């Protein structure tokens, strides 16, 4: 059944008015219009408190507004038994009247208060009658009005208290929230909380729905536990992440808070009061302060100087770890006034007086004194401290440093001493210049003979090679018992003597092609013990004395044996074939002071071979000439004068030296110094004559000398090989391309024409990376020999050579390529190499990058060990070139960590030191000693397989 409620309300004798959320009049019945003396068209749409104004602070204003607020807040009807409220009539005259009102909420579909229906009763006459009651008035009615007025007053007072506490709640600087029920539904939240979480709709919504980002941060679980247990929880500096705006990022905040359970009259928890403070600014300031302090401590503890601080009155309150580590004293033992304990006794008085004066005058403290080191020695330091003052100029503290200036002081002392001995130093320098002039003269003589030797060696050795080949082939065609064989043997011995003489000429002039490798000299000499004893004869006794843990030497094996044999034979001749010789082998380290006057040598580690005899000794006037070429004290026909000069040239060419000490009547000792190898010693390998064999492969022989070409081809054919020949590199390329079916290229080095033998070889290897190449030459200073050493990886055979020597070298060349996977060779030649370069010195790093770029590699540069490790985490590199001395950690430590993550990465150490232990322990490493050039670096890259030998040579 439908009813017209508006019609019903219009017929009611009581006053009704309908108000919206803004207290705007939406509708009123006729009784309301009559009692208020208003017309509907003028009243509707007006705000009730503006149409019927009253002072908000008056009793009536506060009572009416308080009732409306309770309805909107609680959603239930509110009663005002008695409320005084003035009403102005149509004539504008205001009249004080008394009302009884009921405010009933009208809810919308969501349960929210949409309207308020006010039902009012004008009780002015009843209230006035009660005020003037006489004996005939109703006592009961008067009591009702009195109680109603009391209730109204109490409600008004209660509203005032509620509003007071609401004001406190809203304006409180700390955040406050009430959460009701087990789902933690927001009942109230003050402005501080809204500022913390951002302006959002909270009231009436569960915490997990209203502030969803707190899920997983532990707060909801903590609230659940407080609601369950009824026990409060307090936390200080709790971290939370809040999204303060819908599209903004989550922000980090820190809060102090308490979760206080709210209990009903039965003691049951019905909600939780959350109260706390936003301490984000304080926490962030503390974090930044800690970070700043940590940065200061890190900087102070890593600076190369000692750092310290003191209070305004001069008492030290903090000292960096460097000073404790330097002095070796217990941490904390130098604080306050104990610091003079580590100052040199002679310097204490002055340093303390200077410090006291600086404190008194509040000026910079600066002095010099000696500090005791952990080992008990003293070193000079420059000590400075600056006063730190506030904005008002008040002294707060001191910050000081100690800088080691011992070297500068020592240099100043040495300079003073040098100035005082100037005359003596000039004389000494003159002597050194004279010695240097003598060495220069000797070097020029050697150079002159070397140029002569080099000029004739090629043609001379070619002639000897023709003779060797012809005699070898002739001997095959003659019966073994034929008398002519004696003549052939004699001719072959003459050829060998000629080859030996040519080799000696090249040796002392430092032009012989050496092929150095890592060798144990003790094993090398033990291996030729039979040859040594045969050469010395039965009258000589030889003692070999080598230290334990002998370093390997980086030398050419055959030349080393020849040099030692030369020294032993000279000693035998001096002792006339009778007596005892001693060979002593030891490790030696040489610093700059040990190599004064030796500009061709670098500081570092060497292996020393000393040959000691007890012969008559060498006269003082003869001793300076013993290394001169062609100088000999032996009778004519007994010596060439090339023995010691050959040893001298070999030692210098190998990067070492030879010296001689002799005392007449006592004996002579010759010291051969050879560079230490950076890799483990390789086994001494000599071919057994029974292993010498030929083969059936096809060989392309390139030789411009027709007779040498024919003789060499005959030897190869006699060994079973198929031989094709070419007279020069251009013809060889043409032949190789027309018929590429051959297995080995054998080429002379020095040939006429625009195309060099090296260019031809590189062209063929670019087309056929697996092609083995054997170079033969009588003299090849600038083609495949660099600084007196055959390029790494190059197969080389010196002219003149025998059939057996040729057979061995050909098989070695063929075998070396067969042992290398073609895929690997192609990878090396085709793929660009990416080198990670670590060098802290910017100028050196720039030079090395240019060298590597010139070798055709890609380069990535770093300046520290940590930067290098970071690069290897994100990029791919084929090799690491690293300096040993870096600012943050040693290059050896970096290499060890790199090898753990990249087991196969080749590593090259650049150093000024004599040896790098990590290079031996890690394996697959090379060492280049500073100062080095592009050739040294290229050879190191080639030895490790980072570049092909052709690519490495192209950068020379």
TrEMBL record:
GO terms for molecular function: kinase activity. Signal peptide: none annotated. InterPro entries: CheY-like_superfamily (IPR011006), HATPase_C_sf (IPR036890), HATPase_dom (IPR003594), His_kinase_dom (IPR005467), HisK_dim/P_dom (IPR003661), HisK_dim/P_sf (IPR036097), PAC (IPR001610), PAS (IPR000014). PROSITE patterns: HIS_KIN (PS50109), PAC (PS50113), PAS (PS50112), RESPONSE_REGULATORY (PS50110). It catalyses: ATP + protein L-histidine = ADP + protein N-phospho-L-histidine. Residues 698-814, 834-945 form the Response regulatory domain. Residues 236-291, 365-417 form the PAC domain. Its EC number is 2.7.13.3. It is an enzyme of class 2 (transferase). Residues 405-446 form a coiled coil. The modification 4-aspartylphosphate is found at residues 748, 883. Keywords: Coiled coil, Kinase, Phosphoprotein, Transferase. Residues 455-678 form the Histidine kinase domain. Residues 292-362 form the PAS domain. Pfam families: HATPase_c, PAS_3, PAS_4, Response_reg. NCBIfam families: sensory_box. This is histidine kinase. The lineage of its organism: Bacteria, Pseudomonadati, Pseudomonadota, Alphaproteobacteria, Rhodobacterales.
């Amino acid at each position: 059944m439908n009813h017209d409620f508006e019609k019903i309300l219009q017929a009611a004798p009581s006053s009704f008015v309908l108000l919206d959320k803004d207290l705007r009049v939406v509708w009123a019945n006729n009784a309301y219009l009559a009692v208020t003396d208003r017309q509907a068209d003028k009243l509707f749409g007006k705000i009730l408190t503006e149409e019927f104004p009253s002072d908000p602070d008056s009793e009536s204003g506060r009572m009416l507004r308080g009732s409306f607020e309770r309805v909107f807040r609680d959603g239930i009807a509110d009663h005002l038994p008695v409320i005084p409220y003035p009403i102005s009539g149509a004539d504008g005259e205001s009249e004080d009247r008394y009302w009884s009102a009921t405010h009933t909420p009208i809810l919308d579909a969501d349960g929210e208060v949409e309207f308020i229906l006010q039902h009012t009763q004008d009780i002015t006459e009843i209230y006035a009658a009660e005020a003037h009651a006489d004996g005939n008035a109703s006592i009961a009615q008067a009591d009702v009005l009195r109680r109603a007025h009391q209730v109204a007053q109490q409600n008004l007072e209660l509203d005032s208290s509620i509003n007071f506490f609401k004001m406190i709640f809203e304006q409180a600087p700390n955040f406050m929230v009430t959460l009701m029920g087990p789902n933690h539904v927001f009942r109230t939240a003050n402005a501080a909380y809204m500022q913390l979480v951002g302006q959002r709709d909270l009231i009436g919504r569960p915490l997990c729905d209203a502030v969803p980002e707190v899920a997983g941060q532990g707060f909801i679980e903590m609230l659940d536990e407080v609601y369950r247990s009824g026990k409060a929880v307090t936390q200080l500096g709790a971290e939370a992440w809040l999204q303060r705006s819908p599209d903004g990022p989550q922000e980090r905040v820190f809060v102090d808070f308490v979760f206080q359970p709210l209990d009903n009259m039965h003691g049951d928890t019905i909600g939780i009061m959350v109260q706390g403070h936003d301490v984000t600014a304080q926490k962030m300031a503390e974090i930044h302060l800690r970070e700043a302090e940590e940065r200061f401590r890190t900087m102070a503890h890593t600076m190369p100087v000692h750092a310290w601080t003191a209070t305004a009155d001069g008492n030290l309150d903090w000292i960096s770890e460097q000073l404790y580590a330097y002095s070796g004293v217990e941490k904390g033992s130098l604080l306050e006034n104990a610091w003079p304990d580590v100052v040199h006794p002679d310097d204490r008085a002055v340093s303390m007086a200077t410090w006291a004066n600086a404190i008194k005058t509040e000026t910079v403290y600066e002095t010099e004194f000696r500090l005791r080191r952990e080992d008990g020695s003293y070193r000079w330091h420059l000590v400075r401290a600056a006063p730190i003052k506030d904005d008002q100029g008040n002294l707060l503290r001191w910050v000081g440093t100690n800088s080691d200036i011992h070297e500068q002081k020592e240099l100043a002392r040495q300079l003073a001493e040098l100035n005082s001995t100037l005359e003596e130093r000039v004389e000494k320098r003159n002597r050194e210049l004279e010695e240097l002039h003598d060495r220069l003269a000797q070097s020029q003589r050697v150079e002159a003979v070397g140029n002569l030797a080099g000029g004739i060696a090629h043609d001379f050795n070619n002639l000897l090679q023709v003779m060797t080949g012809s005699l070898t082939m002739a001997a095959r065609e003659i019966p073994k018992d034929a008398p002519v064989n004696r003549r052939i043997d004699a001719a072959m011995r003459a050829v060998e003597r000629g080859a030996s003489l040519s080799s000696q000429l090249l040796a002392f002039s430092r032009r012989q092609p050496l092929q150095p490798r890592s060798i144990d000299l003790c094993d090398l000499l033990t291996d030729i013990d039979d040859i040594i004893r045969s050469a010395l004869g039965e009258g000589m006794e030889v003692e070999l004395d080598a230290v334990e843990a002998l370093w390997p030497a980086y030398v050419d094996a055959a030349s080393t044996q020849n040099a030692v044999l030369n020294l032993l034979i000279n000693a035998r001749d001096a002792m006339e074939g009778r007596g005892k010789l001693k060979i002593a082998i030891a490790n030696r380290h040489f610093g700059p002071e040990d190599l004064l006057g030796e500009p061709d040598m670098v500081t570092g580690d060497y292996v020393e071979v000393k040959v000691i005899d007890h012969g008559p000794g060498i006269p003082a006037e003869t001793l300076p000439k013993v290394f001169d070429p062609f100088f000999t004290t032996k009778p004519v026909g007994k010596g060439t004068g090339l023995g010691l000069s050959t040893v001298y040239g070999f030692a210098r060419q190998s990067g070492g030296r030879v010296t001689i000490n002799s005392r007449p009547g006592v004996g002579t000792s010759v010291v051969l110094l050879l560079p230490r190898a950076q890799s483990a010693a390789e086994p001494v390998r000599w071919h057994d004559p029974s292993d010498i064999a030929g083969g059936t492969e096809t060989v392309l022989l390139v030789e411009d000398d027709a007779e040498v070409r024919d003789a060499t081809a005959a030897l190869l054919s006699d060994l079973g090989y198929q031989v094709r020949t070419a007279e020069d590199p251009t013809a060889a390329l043409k032949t190789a391309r027309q018929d590429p079916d051959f297995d080995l290229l054998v080429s002379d080095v020095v040939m006429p024409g625009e195309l060099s033998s090296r260019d031809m070889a590189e062209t063929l290897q670019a087309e056929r990376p697996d092609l083995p190449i054997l170079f033969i030459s009588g003299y090849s200073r600038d083609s495949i020999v660099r600084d007196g050493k055959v390029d790494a990886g190059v197969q080389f055979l010196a002219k003149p050579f025998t059939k057996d020597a040729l057979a061995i070298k050909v098989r070695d060349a063929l075998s070396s390529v067969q042992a290398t996977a073609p895929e690997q060779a192609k990878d090396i030649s085709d793929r660009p190499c990416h080198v990670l370069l670590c060098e802290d010195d910017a100028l050196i790093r720039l030079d090395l990058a240019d060298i590597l770029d010139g070798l055709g590699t890609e380069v990535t540069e770093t300046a520290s060990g940590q930067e290098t490790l970071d690069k290897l985490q994100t990029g791919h590199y084929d090799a690491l070139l690293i300096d040993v001395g870096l600012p943050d950690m040693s290059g050896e430590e970096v290499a060890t960590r790199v090898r753990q993550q990249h087991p196969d990465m080749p590593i090259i150490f650049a150093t000024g030191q004599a040896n790098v232990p990590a290079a031996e322990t890690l394996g697959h490493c090379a060492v280049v000693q500073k100062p080095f050039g592009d050739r040294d670096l290229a050879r190191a890259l080639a030895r490790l397989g980072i570049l092909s030998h052709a690519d490495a040579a192209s950068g020379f």
